[in-house]
Amino acid sequence: MLLPDNSTVLIVGAGPAGLTAALSLIHHGCRDFVIVDAMVEGQNISRAITIHSATIEALASINAADGLLSRAIIGKSIRITSRDSHIFEAKFDPLKKHSAHPYALFAPQNVTELVLGQKLQSLGIRVQRPHRVIGMKQNENDPRITDVSFDDGQVIRARYIIGADGARSIIRTISGIGFSDPEGPNLSNHTLSQMVIADVTFEPEPVGPLTIEGHLNGIVSSGSIFLLTPFGNHFNDELTRDGKPITKSIFRVGCAIPVNNGEPPHAPSKDYIQNLVDTYGPACITSDLSLNPTPVKIDQLVWSSRFRTHSAIADRTFTRFGAAIFLVGDAAHIHSPAGGQGMNLAIRDAVFLSEAVTKHIQASAENIDVDDTILQEFAEARHARALEIIGFTKNLLKLASLTYDPYAWWMPFSRASVRDLILRILGRFDFVQSRVAWGLGGLGRR
Fold first, then answer.
1. Cys staple from 231: which of 204, 250, 323, 434, with CB 3.0 to 4.6 Å?
2. Under 8 Å between Cβ of 193 and 308
3. How far is residue 397's CA from residue 423's CA, in Å, rounded to a whole number?
4. Which cofactor(s) are needed, names only (predicted)?
């Protein structure tokens, strides 16, 4: 497909951050942009599943929330349990004092991308595919323009470039921006340094409190945490792969893999996931008769993947490379999935970035010598916010990684058992519920 020779804004990457940036540009009055993606079509995989209250507010501010509100599962709480007993529940209902959206939304990332993409199409904009960026250089005639070249030989001259092209961002690399953990290299032997996630169905379908829709469940055990989120039949069509119909309820499962178990496979098999369920999962979904009087087994493995829980942040999220270059989403920062903050930060960054860009475009139209203060202030504020989120998720990960091994021979209780006891006690107080919901919902970190 032919690309235009010139564009005020070029968005590279059509994941949640790139699509949101496009929607926000339109909302703020800018339609002179092109959004490209290297893939032929969006990935038909789940990945991130949680959209928090502050993110729903940000999307609503650009009239882009309605589709997700009608499509997603309304999330009521995040629960922490052991394999057979309740520990703590962070309910979102207390947020009604602070937000018009006192809940989370649960939906596979490909559904989020589909809904945002459909909204963009309804506004007359399509993602241009497949177009992979292979180079950038400053324009010879205008020092404020960058010539962006693609693998098919086409070139776009742009004044603003938004790199929303993922953790291996070509925009970041060509711009010479560093990308590393703010606290230094991660330790590869961190207890929860590697995880596996999958979408599965069970036979027979499990029953019990943890299988009720609207809740994300974290099951803690020594050296691991297991995640379970029921999707019901809400996303069966969108998650269908290879033409195999899905008729049963789908569950998202995830599990931290202890480092002494070795590195998990790239696409874990059904048997591999079943072993994790039986070893670390809640009693209601295991095939272990000693734990579950009605044993269940994985029936269909819809999708699976692995990832690491490392953190990294770009040295800066705004630079000049001729054009004004911005990074959003995984191109700008990655971190632990604890608390489901990653995609949320990416979407909010994209909403606020496009507002800053349109303000700068308008200021430039009035004054040809306008400086980059608007852009720099935005970049510094969002960089600081990303550092906060990285710290927040690291603390959650440390809390989850405590083990049930005795602290010492003379002290027969463990750090994890103390954590569980404190959480059980604190969970009885409404103000604790409210503070936890506030932290997870992102309302203090917009």
1. 250
2. yes
3. 15
4. FAD
Q: Summarize pLDDT for 45-75 with one digit per residue, the tens.
A: 668 899 999 999 999 999 999 999 999 999 9
0.85 exceeded by the pTM? yes
For the cut 80, the answer to whether the pLDDT of residue 184 exceeds it is: no
Q: Are 42 and 64 in contact (CB under 8 A)?
A: no
Six-digit token pair at 370?
């306008």
Looking at residue 358, its pLDDT comes to 95
| Residues composing the chain | 446
Distance (Å, rounded) from C-alpha 313 to C-alpha 332?
A: 6
Tokens of 435: 């503070």
For residues 396 and 335, give the distance between their C-alpha atoms in angstroms, rounded to a whole number.
11
CA 56 to chain centre: 14
Indicate the residue type of 346: A
Residues 6 or more apart in contact with residue 327 via CB below 8 angstroms: 163, 164, 169, 171, 172, 177, 314, 317, 318
E-strand ranges in 94-168 read: 104-106, 133-138, 146-150, 155-163
Contacts of 395 (CB under 8 A, 6+ apart): none
For all residues of the chain together, what is the average pLDDT? Answer: 90
Report in angstroms the alpha-carbon separations of 212 from 230, 388, 394: 7, 32, 29
Summarised one tens digit per residue, pLDDT across range 236-255 is: 999 987 777 899 999 999 99
